[in-house]
Recover the amino acids of this structure.
Protein backbone atom coordinates (compact mmCIF):
# COMPACT_ATOMS: atom_id res chain seq x y z
CA UNK A 1 0.00 0.00 0.00
CA UNK A 2 2.72 2.47 1.01
CA UNK A 3 4.74 1.66 -2.10
CA UNK A 4 1.72 2.37 -4.32
CA UNK A 5 0.98 5.67 -2.54
CA UNK A 6 4.60 6.77 -2.77
CA UNK A 7 4.70 5.91 -6.48
CA UNK A 8 1.50 7.81 -7.24
CA UNK A 9 2.68 10.74 -5.13
CA UNK A 10 6.03 10.80 -6.95
CA UNK A 11 4.35 10.71 -10.37
CA UNK A 12 1.78 13.39 -9.60
CA UNK A 13 4.39 15.53 -7.88
CA UNK A 14 6.27 15.78 -11.15
CA UNK A 15 3.27 17.00 -13.08
CA UNK A 16 2.49 20.72 -13.08
CA UNK A 17 -0.41 21.41 -10.74
CA UNK A 18 -2.68 22.47 -13.60
CA UNK A 19 -2.04 19.22 -15.45
CA UNK A 20 -2.52 17.14 -12.32
CA UNK A 21 -5.88 18.83 -11.69
CA UNK A 22 -7.02 18.09 -15.24
CA UNK A 23 -6.14 14.46 -14.60
CA UNK A 24 -7.97 14.50 -11.27
CA UNK A 25 -11.04 16.05 -12.82
CA UNK A 26 -11.09 13.31 -15.44
CA UNK A 27 -10.64 10.59 -12.85
CA UNK A 28 -13.50 12.06 -10.87
CA UNK A 29 -15.74 12.13 -13.92
CA UNK A 30 -14.92 8.47 -14.57
CA UNK A 31 -15.68 7.60 -10.96
CA UNK A 32 -19.09 9.24 -11.33
CA UNK A 33 -19.90 6.81 -14.13
CA UNK A 34 -19.04 3.68 -12.18
CA UNK A 35 -19.67 4.62 -8.54
CA UNK A 36 -22.17 2.52 -6.64
CA UNK A 37 -25.53 3.74 -5.31
CA UNK A 38 -25.96 6.33 -8.06
CA UNK A 39 -29.74 6.53 -7.68
CA UNK A 40 -29.49 6.63 -3.88
CA UNK A 41 -27.15 9.62 -4.02
CA UNK A 42 -29.30 11.46 -6.57
CA UNK A 43 -32.39 10.87 -4.45
CA UNK A 44 -30.53 12.17 -1.38
CA UNK A 45 -29.58 15.36 -3.21
CA UNK A 46 -33.13 15.83 -4.53
CA UNK A 47 -34.80 15.53 -1.15
CA UNK A 48 -32.18 17.58 0.71
CA UNK A 49 -31.98 20.48 -1.73
CA UNK A 50 -35.47 20.30 -3.25
CA UNK A 51 -34.13 20.08 -6.82
CA UNK A 52 -35.24 17.96 -9.77
CA UNK A 53 -33.48 14.81 -10.93
CA UNK A 54 -31.58 16.61 -13.71
CA UNK A 55 -30.05 19.17 -11.35
CA UNK A 56 -29.32 16.49 -8.75
CA UNK A 57 -27.43 14.46 -11.36
CA UNK A 58 -25.41 17.54 -12.30
CA UNK A 59 -24.52 18.20 -8.66
CA UNK A 60 -23.45 14.59 -8.23
CA UNK A 61 -21.24 14.73 -11.33
CA UNK A 62 -19.56 17.97 -10.24
CA UNK A 63 -19.08 16.48 -6.76
CA UNK A 64 -17.07 13.59 -8.19
CA UNK A 65 -14.98 15.95 -10.29
CA UNK A 66 -14.08 17.89 -7.16
CA UNK A 67 -13.28 14.68 -5.30
CA UNK A 68 -10.97 13.60 -8.13
CA UNK A 69 -9.07 16.86 -7.93
CA UNK A 70 -8.98 16.66 -4.14
CA UNK A 71 -7.47 13.16 -4.30
CA UNK A 72 -4.80 14.31 -6.74
CA UNK A 73 -3.96 17.34 -4.61
CA UNK A 74 -3.63 15.15 -1.54
CA UNK A 75 -1.33 12.70 -3.28
CA UNK A 76 0.81 15.62 -4.54
CA UNK A 77 0.92 17.18 -1.08
CA UNK A 78 4.23 15.60 0.04
CA UNK A 79 5.91 17.27 -2.96
CA UNK A 80 4.24 20.70 -2.85
CA UNK A 81 6.37 23.66 -1.88
CA UNK A 82 5.15 26.32 0.50
CA UNK A 83 5.12 28.81 -2.38
CA UNK A 84 2.92 26.51 -4.46
CA UNK A 85 0.52 26.05 -1.57
CA UNK A 86 0.25 29.80 -0.99
CA UNK A 87 -0.57 30.31 -4.68
CA UNK A 88 -3.20 27.56 -4.67
CA UNK A 89 -5.15 28.11 -1.44
CA UNK A 90 -6.28 31.43 -0.03
CA UNK A 91 -7.71 32.31 3.38
CA UNK A 92 -10.30 34.99 4.10
CA UNK A 93 -11.62 36.00 7.49
CA UNK A 94 -8.28 35.68 9.26
CA UNK A 95 -9.31 38.69 11.32
CA UNK A 96 -11.66 36.34 13.16
CA UNK A 97 -8.83 34.07 14.33
CA UNK A 98 -8.16 34.54 18.05
CA UNK A 99 -4.78 35.93 19.16
CA UNK A 100 -1.84 33.57 19.52
CA UNK A 101 -2.11 31.58 22.73
CA UNK A 102 -5.90 31.84 22.92
CA UNK A 103 -7.55 28.39 22.84
CA UNK A 104 -10.41 27.86 20.43
CA UNK A 105 -12.39 25.21 18.59
CA UNK A 106 -12.71 25.00 14.81
CA UNK A 107 -15.66 23.52 12.93
CA UNK A 108 -14.75 21.93 9.58
CA UNK A 109 -16.78 20.18 6.89
CA UNK A 110 -15.97 17.94 3.90
CA UNK A 111 -16.15 20.60 1.20
CA UNK A 112 -13.61 21.91 -1.30
CA UNK A 113 -10.33 20.29 -0.26
CA UNK A 114 -10.67 19.90 3.51
CA UNK A 115 -7.34 18.04 3.63
CA UNK A 116 -5.28 20.91 2.26
CA UNK A 117 -7.26 23.35 4.40
CA UNK A 118 -6.03 21.62 7.55
CA UNK A 119 -2.52 20.84 6.35
CA UNK A 120 -1.82 24.34 5.02
CA UNK A 121 -3.28 26.28 7.95
CA UNK A 122 0.08 26.65 9.78
CA UNK A 123 1.40 28.54 6.73
CA UNK A 124 -1.24 31.24 7.13
CA UNK A 125 -1.62 31.82 10.86
CA UNK A 126 0.61 30.99 13.82
CA UNK A 127 -1.88 29.31 16.17
CA UNK A 128 -0.93 25.63 16.51
CA UNK A 129 -3.67 23.50 14.92
CA UNK A 130 -4.75 20.03 16.05
CA UNK A 131 -7.32 18.01 14.08
CA UNK A 132 -9.42 15.17 15.49
CA UNK A 133 -9.95 12.39 12.91
CA UNK A 134 -10.93 8.75 12.67
CA UNK A 135 -7.88 6.50 12.33
CA UNK A 136 -7.79 4.41 9.17
CA UNK A 137 -6.84 0.80 8.54
CA UNK A 138 -4.42 -0.73 7.79
CA UNK A 139 -1.93 0.99 10.05
CA UNK A 140 0.51 1.58 7.17
CA UNK A 141 -2.16 3.58 5.31
CA UNK A 142 -2.98 5.58 8.42
CA UNK A 143 0.72 6.34 8.98
CA UNK A 144 1.19 7.58 5.41
CA UNK A 145 -1.92 9.76 5.51
CA UNK A 146 -1.06 11.18 8.94
CA UNK A 147 2.42 12.10 7.75
CA UNK A 148 0.94 13.83 4.70
CA UNK A 149 -1.61 15.70 6.78
CA UNK A 150 1.18 16.89 9.09
CA UNK A 151 3.32 18.17 6.19
CA UNK A 152 3.51 21.76 7.48
CA UNK A 153 2.96 21.27 11.20
CA UNK A 154 -0.69 20.34 11.73
CA UNK A 155 -1.07 17.74 14.50
CA UNK A 156 -3.44 14.79 14.00
CA UNK A 157 -5.28 13.03 16.84
CA UNK A 158 -7.39 9.87 16.83
CA UNK A 159 -10.94 10.65 17.92
CA UNK A 160 -10.87 7.52 20.09
CA UNK A 161 -8.14 9.04 22.22
CA UNK A 162 -8.46 10.43 25.69
CA UNK A 163 -10.55 13.54 26.28
CA UNK A 164 -7.88 14.48 28.81
CA UNK A 165 -5.34 14.79 25.98
CA UNK A 166 -7.67 17.11 24.07
CA UNK A 167 -8.09 19.26 27.15
CA UNK A 168 -4.30 19.53 27.46
CA UNK A 169 -4.19 20.89 23.90
CA UNK A 170 -6.71 23.58 24.75
CA UNK A 171 -4.99 24.38 28.03
CA UNK A 172 -1.84 25.16 26.01
CA UNK A 173 -3.77 27.79 24.06
CA UNK A 174 -3.92 25.85 20.79
CA UNK A 175 -6.78 25.36 18.30
CA UNK A 176 -8.61 22.04 18.11
CA UNK A 177 -10.58 21.23 14.94
CA UNK A 178 -13.46 18.78 14.49
CA UNK A 179 -15.04 17.58 11.24
CA UNK A 180 -18.69 17.45 12.21
CA UNK A 181 -20.59 16.35 9.11
CA UNK A 182 -20.29 12.54 9.36
CA UNK A 183 -22.74 10.00 10.69
CA UNK A 184 -22.10 9.12 14.33
CA UNK A 185 -23.07 6.01 16.22
CA UNK A 186 -25.91 6.52 18.67
CA UNK A 187 -23.65 6.35 21.73
CA UNK A 188 -21.26 8.92 20.21
CA UNK A 189 -23.66 11.72 19.42
CA UNK A 190 -27.01 13.48 19.50
CA UNK A 191 -29.71 13.84 16.87
CA UNK A 192 -30.09 17.24 15.22
CA UNK A 193 -31.77 18.23 11.96
CA UNK A 194 -29.55 18.25 8.89
CA UNK A 195 -31.39 19.22 5.72
CA UNK A 196 -34.66 18.56 7.51
CA UNK A 197 -33.86 15.02 8.67
CA UNK A 198 -32.54 13.86 12.06
CA UNK A 199 -28.83 13.09 11.80
CA UNK A 200 -26.76 11.58 14.60
CA UNK A 201 -23.94 14.05 15.17
CA UNK A 202 -20.89 13.85 17.41
CA UNK A 203 -21.28 16.14 20.41
CA UNK A 204 -17.59 16.07 21.37
CA UNK A 205 -16.94 19.59 20.10
CA UNK A 206 -19.92 20.98 21.99
CA UNK A 207 -18.92 19.15 25.17
CA UNK A 208 -15.47 20.73 25.06
CA UNK A 209 -16.92 24.14 24.19
CA UNK A 210 -19.16 23.92 27.24
CA UNK A 211 -16.46 22.59 29.56
CA UNK A 212 -13.90 25.28 28.65
CA UNK A 213 -16.40 28.00 27.57
CA UNK A 214 -14.69 28.41 24.21
CA UNK A 215 -15.83 29.94 20.95
CA UNK A 216 -16.24 27.72 17.89
CA UNK A 217 -14.97 29.08 14.57
CA UNK A 218 -16.55 27.68 11.36
CA UNK A 219 -13.72 27.15 8.84
CA UNK A 220 -14.98 26.05 5.43
CA UNK A 221 -13.21 25.43 2.13
CA UNK A 222 -14.54 25.67 -1.42
CA UNK A 223 -13.06 25.22 -4.89
CA UNK A 224 -13.20 28.26 -7.14
CA UNK A 225 -13.90 28.31 -10.88
CA UNK A 226 -10.16 28.44 -11.64
CA UNK A 227 -9.71 25.37 -9.37
CA UNK A 228 -7.84 27.30 -6.69
CA UNK A 229 -9.16 26.89 -3.14
CA UNK A 230 -10.63 29.49 -0.83
CA UNK A 231 -10.98 29.00 2.91
CA UNK A 232 -13.52 31.15 4.73
CA UNK A 233 -13.23 31.68 8.49
CA UNK A 234 -16.60 32.85 9.79
CA UNK A 235 -17.35 34.79 13.01
CA UNK A 236 -17.36 32.45 16.00
CA UNK A 237 -20.29 30.67 17.57
CA UNK A 238 -20.50 31.34 21.32
CA UNK A 239 -20.09 28.43 23.73
CA UNK A 240 -23.08 26.58 25.16
CA UNK A 241 -24.83 28.34 28.01
CA UNK A 242 -24.07 25.40 30.29
CA UNK A 243 -23.30 21.69 30.33
CA UNK A 244 -26.84 20.38 30.50
CA UNK A 245 -27.97 18.03 27.68
CA UNK A 246 -30.21 20.73 26.20
CA UNK A 247 -27.25 23.14 26.08
CA UNK A 248 -25.07 20.60 24.28
CA UNK A 249 -27.91 19.80 21.88
CA UNK A 250 -28.48 23.48 21.05
CA UNK A 251 -24.79 24.08 20.34
CA UNK A 252 -24.48 20.95 18.18
CA UNK A 253 -27.57 22.10 16.29
CA UNK A 254 -26.02 25.54 15.72
CA UNK A 255 -22.80 23.99 14.39
CA UNK A 256 -24.73 21.69 12.07
CA UNK A 257 -26.80 24.59 10.77
CA UNK A 258 -23.61 26.47 9.84
CA UNK A 259 -22.46 23.44 7.86
CA UNK A 260 -25.83 23.12 6.13
CA UNK A 261 -25.85 26.79 5.15
CA UNK A 262 -22.43 26.46 3.52
CA UNK A 263 -23.35 23.28 1.67
CA UNK A 264 -26.51 24.94 0.33
CA UNK A 265 -24.30 27.65 -1.16
CA UNK A 266 -21.90 25.13 -2.74
CA UNK A 267 -23.85 21.87 -3.00
CA UNK A 268 -21.54 20.25 -5.55
CA UNK A 269 -18.62 20.36 -3.13
CA UNK A 270 -19.96 18.19 -0.31
CA UNK A 271 -19.69 14.36 -0.07
CA UNK A 272 -23.27 13.36 -0.88
CA UNK A 273 -22.31 9.69 -1.24
CA UNK A 274 -21.71 9.61 2.54
CA UNK A 275 -24.59 7.96 4.40
CA UNK A 276 -25.04 10.85 6.77
CA UNK A 277 -28.43 9.70 8.08
CA UNK A 278 -27.57 6.02 8.52
CA UNK A 279 -28.02 6.00 12.31
CA UNK A 280 -31.75 6.25 13.01
CA UNK A 281 -33.46 7.65 16.12
CA UNK A 282 -34.83 5.01 18.44
CA UNK A 283 -38.53 4.34 17.94
CA UNK A 284 -40.48 5.02 21.11
Amino acid sequence: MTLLLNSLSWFLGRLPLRGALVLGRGLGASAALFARRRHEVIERIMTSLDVDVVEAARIRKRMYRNLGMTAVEFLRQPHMTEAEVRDHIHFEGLEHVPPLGTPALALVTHTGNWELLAAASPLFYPNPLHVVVKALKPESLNTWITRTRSRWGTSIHDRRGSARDLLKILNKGDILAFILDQNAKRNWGVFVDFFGKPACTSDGLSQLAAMKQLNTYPVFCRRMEDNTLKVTILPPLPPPAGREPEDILAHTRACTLEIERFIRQYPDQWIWMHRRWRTKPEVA
Notes: The mean pLDDT is 95. The first strand starts at residue 89 and ends at 92.
